[in-house]
């Protein structure tokens, strides 16, 4: 009886780990993707004084610094915070700012 319980527990743990790995595998980039041709939901001006940027999952943001810009789509399942420099092109303003990714309000009842 103890052996059957042990086997069941191990199988359950294995199944759960595979399910978690599969959910992460469906996201090509955990931070989102470049969306150069997409129409942005909003435009965010970034400068040396920018400390944080709040965005929602699924949102398309055009980031602007002086004469530079890039557009990013936050198409990810993860709720997290990360440094702006992870997604910003090299030499873009204030790569130390923190991006706070919140759930899409359309899906949060």
UniProtKB/TrEMBL annotation:
Pfam families in the record: CzcE (PF16986)
Name assigned to this protein: CzcE family metal-binding protein
Keyword Signal: yes
Domain of life assignment: Bacteria
Gene3D superfamilies assigned to the protein according to its UniProt record, in alphabetical order: Heavy-metal resistance protein CzcE (2.60.40.2280)
Keyword terms of this UniProt record: Signal
Record's signal peptide: 1-25
Organism: Herbaspirillum huttiense subsp. nephrolepidis
């Amino acid at each position: 009886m103890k052996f059957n319980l042990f086997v069941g527990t191990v199988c359950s743990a294995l199944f759960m780990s595979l399910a978690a790995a599969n959910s992460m595998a469906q996201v090509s980039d955990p931070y989102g993707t470049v969306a150069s041709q997409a129409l942005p939901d909003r435009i965010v001006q970034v400068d040396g004084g920018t400390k944080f940027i709040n965005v929602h999952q699924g949102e398309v943001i055009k980031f602007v610094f002086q004469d530079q810009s890039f557009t990013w789509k936050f198409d990810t399942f993860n709720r997290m915070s990360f440094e702006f420099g992870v997604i910003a092109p090299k030499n873009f303003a204030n790569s130390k700012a923190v991006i706070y990714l919140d759930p899409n309000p359309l899906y949060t009842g």
